[in-house]
Every structure is written in C-alpha cells, then in structure tokens.
Hints:
Bound molecules: magnesium ion
Shape: elongated
Helix content: over 70%
Order of helices and strands: HHHHH
Distance between the termini: 17 Å
Number of strands: 0
Amino acid sequence: MLNNRVVELLNDQVNKEFYSAYLYLDFANYYHDKSLDGFANWYEIQAKEEMDHAMLMVKFLQNNDHSVKLEAIAKPNVELKEFIDPLNEALKHEKYVTSLINNIYEVALETKDYRAQKFLSWFIDEQGEEEKNAMEMIDRFKLFGGDPHGLYALDSEFKTRKYSAPSLELD
Ligand code: MG
C-alpha cells in the first residue's frame, strides 16, 4: 500500500499533468494561428506526453487499489504576444512541475514509501529531459529565430518531431 499523503499528492498531480497538456495545447493553438505549424506540432506532441504522464499516475494509483478523483482543469492563463513567449513560459512551467514532483518524492522518502519512490524516480529523470528541451528551444530560438529564414528552418525542424509513447509502461 501507498502512504496516504503520497496518494493525495499524486492525485493532485494527475490534475496538474492534464493542466500541462492544456497549457501546451494553448501554445500549439497560438503557433497554429501564426502559421508556425512546426512549433504547433512540437507542442501538440508535448500535450500528448503530458496526458501520458497523467495516465501513468492514474494507473499507478489504481494498480495500488486507490481510486482517482478528477477535479476541474484550470484554464491556461498565459499571455502570448511574441513568438518566444511560449518557449519561456514552457521552461518556467517545467521548473514548477519539477518542484511538484520533487515535493512528492520528498514525502515518499519521509514516509518510507519505497514503491512510490521507485515510480517517481522515472518522473525525476523525465523532468530533467523536459527542462533540457525547454532550455534548448529558447537557446536555438535566440540564435536562429530572429530572421525569417532561420525561423522557417526552425519551424521545419520542429515539424519533424514524432510522438513516441513514454519509456515507462504500466498495465
Ligand atoms: Mg509532465
């Protein structure tokens, strides 16, 4: 069995992951409206990954005999003006998510919930990846995004991103 506080926090995190999906879909829609379909593609895939994260947490809770309580998903409330805004907001958001995951892990450590620790360790690695990707996108945008040719090349590159299922699988 899992620790009750860990269960509560993981249940909250399901909602937060779905919010992340919503936020990234909002970014995808913004880029779609600006005809930057590659950037839109990148964030649509990111939104799918966030739904995967939520579902992994749902399965983990269910596999451990806990029911999942779904709450309302907040409306994304980020103002997007410049092309770089979603990239900066994404990094800020991923740092926030890292702090949430770290907090759950800390509770799992304190309560000696070893099963939750093992499960969460995948998310700790995943957050490292997410922050790295977000930082790289900002760096590359700053290098190449300033002129139309560079922006076109970046957009074309982001169009090639393909969805792949998470490396962690739960039945
Ligand atoms: Mg996530």
